[in-house]
Amino acid sequence: MSLVKKLLLSTSVAAVASFSNQVSATDERPIIDYNYRFLPEISRKGMVSSQEAIATQVGADILAQGGNAVDAAVAVGFALAVTLPQAGNLGGGGFMMVHLAEEDKQVAIDYREMAPARAHRDMFLDENGDVDRKLAGYSHLAAGVPGTVAGLHHALSEYGTMSLPEVIAPAIKLARDGFKVSYALESSLAARTKRLTSNKATAKAYFKEGGVPYSAGEILTLPDLANTLQRISDLGLDGFYRGLTADLIVTEMAKHGGFITHDDLTNYKVVERTPVRGTYKGYDIVSMPPPSSGGVHLIQILNILEGYDLQSSGQNSAQTLHLMIEAMRRAYADRSKHLGDPDFYAVPVNQLIDKGYAGELRSLIDPNKATPSSEVAPSKILPDDGPNTTHYSVVDQHGNMVANTYTLNYSYGSGITVEGAGFILNNEMDDFSAKPGSPNAYGLVGEEANAIEPKKRPLSSMTPTLVFKDGNPWVATGSPGGSTIITVTLQTILNMMEFNQNVATATSFARIHHQWLPDRTVVENGISPDTQRLLEQMGHTLVDRKYTLGSTQTVAIEGEYFYGYSDPRRPGAKTIGVDEVKESK
Ligand code: DON
């Protein structure tokens, strides 16, 4: 029986008898707080939380073998490239936040895609000067130079303890021998059959004869992808950025008018960046800096909200939601102007995350009335001198934590599989601002800071985040969801920090989202009709979200226990705790 079940059974009687914090009969340590309707996974030796159950198991197995959180995270990254083709990837990019327990240090690994050298500002404009959405989303031009393989390789060689062949082996086996298609994958592929089968190599790799989608329970093998993974295992970076895989990518590009060349591939660089840091009522937030907008605006919004007594106004009450919307609106306005790749544009990070600046913004918020977005402009601060993504989180027995978000941008990226190499290409070039003021796929607008330039990285919303309590590592989290990633991550940690919810309840609580433009608040099912009415009376325009917002995968450390929870909003996710570990590597 798992530890979780044992704990649940052994404490269930007490849970009925008392609604206060539960303590174990033997040692008086709090185990699970039964005050909430949602219970997390619990374990003592490690935890992995990802969007896909097989990949989560791969990571848990690595921890059980004595690998550290980075070993497990890299193994999960490669496994998801096989079992979660809609977002897990070799052909995309992402960000990894790592907490190194021994050194008490955090690193931010930027393996975002880079624009090819031939990319130029107007590459997605048609003859009328309008953005050609098909070109930006579904063509070979949509692909940035992939960073995932370099990113995972970097993380492992700098901070892992195991070899590349050891952590990549499970992914190779899954691709070579095949894996059982889940209901989640069946429905995801079936929903996009037309788009995906229009690319011959994608049809061949991911569909049955005649473009028929696989059904749940059937076995999907990915032999070309297995060979690519094997080359990476044998040759490291040269297995992807040079040699046969690189040849296959460049041939694919040359055949279909794409820009990526051998030089682009060999010039790809992982960048370790200084994490962006903030505080919220004594908690420390450590998150991804530009070219992600995530960490900056997460901290900016928290800074604004810190000035209110949200506990008194109440979780998800109209008053609290109003203040959150107003803070989000102002942060996203700044995003549109000030955020981009810091190697190309002086992003005013320090000003944006300054508590004094947050205070100025707070003073402009009317506590009772919505400010129309037309009256909110990006602030005039001067620059400093100086639908699918997936997130997973890992914690190990030493207290090392990893929060990793990576993506192809849309589900299955551009939908284009590199012939012979078996992996799908991203369409991350659409995250650039193809034309000032013209919204991208997520309705986000941008300007100069995020204009297309050779070798530049497109601005991202991905927000892998670490939170520290009393100076100790506490939470690792993040989410997919395009522009909503920042606000989804915000609400998850706010529910834990401000409203003391356990990780499961904090995850499950209904969410909202506002991004300045369009001027509307998306509300999830679960925000009550009378709360919505009150918000409308304050001047907010609300739209129902048919789909849910985000899909967080979160792990947390409390004392000597690990807690974790996979967002129930998207199918197929799983969190697995580890209770026994062979000797550490
Ligand atoms: O980096 C970004 O912000 C986007 N490419 C993320 C896309 C995304 O989350 C799609 N997912 N649901």
Question: What does the secondary structure layout of this molecule look like, with pairings?
Answer:
Blueprint: H1 3-17, E1 41-43, E2 46-50, H2 53-64, H3 69-83, E3 93-100, E4 105-111, H4 133-138, H5 148-159, H6 164-177, E5 179-180, H7 183-191, H8 193-197, H9 200-206, E6 219-220, H10 223-235, H11 238-241, H12 243-256, H13 262-266, E7 271-273, E8 276-280, E9 283-287, H14 294-306, H15 310-313, H16 318-338, H17 349-352, H18 355-363, E10 389-396, E11 401-407, E12 465-469, E13 472-477, H19 485-497, H20 503-508, E14 512-513, E15 521-523, H21 529-537, E16 542-544, E17 553-558, E18 561-566, E19 574-578
Parallel strand pairs: 15-16
Antiparallel strand pairs: 1-18, 2-10, 2-19, 3-4, 3-11, 4-7, 5-6, 8-9, 9-12, 10-11, 12-13, 13-17, 14-15, 17-18
The structure holds 6-diazenyl-5-OXO-L-norleucine.
Q: Classify the helix fraction into a percent range.
A: 25-40%
Please tell me what the overall shape is.
globular
**Count of strand segments:** 19
Provide the list of bound ligands, each named once. 6-diazenyl-5-OXO-L-norleucine
Report the sheet with the most strands, covering strand number, pairing sense and barrel closure: 7 strands, antiparallel
In angstroms, what separates the terminal alpha carbons? 27 Å
Radius of gyration: 23 Å
Unreliable parts = 1-29
Structural class: alpha+beta
**Strand neighbour order, sheet with most strands:** 1-18-17-13-12-9-8
Strand content: 15-25%
Global mean pLDDT:
92
Oligomer: single chain
Number of helices: 21
